[in-house]
Model the fold of this input.
Amino acid sequence: MEEPVTKLKQGTEKDELMQSISNAILKIQHEKEACKLKSLSRHNPEKVAKILYLHALGCSQTNMIRRHSMSRNTVVQVLADYADHTNSFRELGGQLAARSYINLESLEEDMIDALRLKLEDGYVPEFRDLKEISIAKANSQRQAMTARGEASQVVDVNNTYTIEDFNDTLSAARKRIEKLKEDAIDAEEVEDAQ
Done:
C-alpha cells in the first residue's frame, strides 16, 4: 500500500520541478525574444529542460558532457542563463534524488537479506551479487548530497589582477624590505653600543 503513495509523491515532486523549469524557460525565452538574441531557450527548449533537470538532480557538468553527449559551452551557457533559478531547481531535485537514494538503500537491504538466506542454504556469493546496486546507491547518494548543496564541489575561481595591483604589491614588498634593512641596521647599532 505504501509504494503507490511513494510513487505518487515522487511523481508530484517531479511534476513540480518540471513545471518550475518550464516556467523559467518561458521567462527566459521572452527575454531573449524581446532582445532579439539567439538562444538555445528559444530554439531547443527541450534540451535546456534536460540540462536544468539533470543539474537539479545533482548531475555534474562533466557528467552531462560525457554521459549525455552535451557540449561544455552549451551546459555552461544554460546554467549561466538560469543562475537565478537554479537554487529552487536544486531544492526540488534534491528531494527527488534523496527519495531515489532511500529507495535504492531499501533495495540493497532486501538484496542483502536475500543473499543471507542463500548463504544459509550453502550458496557461495560472488562480487557481482552486490556490486551494481552498491554503485547505483553510491551514485544516488552523491547526487542527493550535491543537489542539496551538502557535497563539496570544485569551484573554479578566476581572479583578475591589473597592472596597478601588481605595482601596488611590488611597492609594498619593497617597503617591507627597506623596513627590515632599517631594523637590522638599528639592531646592529644597539648591539655595537653595548
The chain has a mean pLDDT of 76. The first helix runs from residue 2 to 34. The chain has eight helices and no strands.
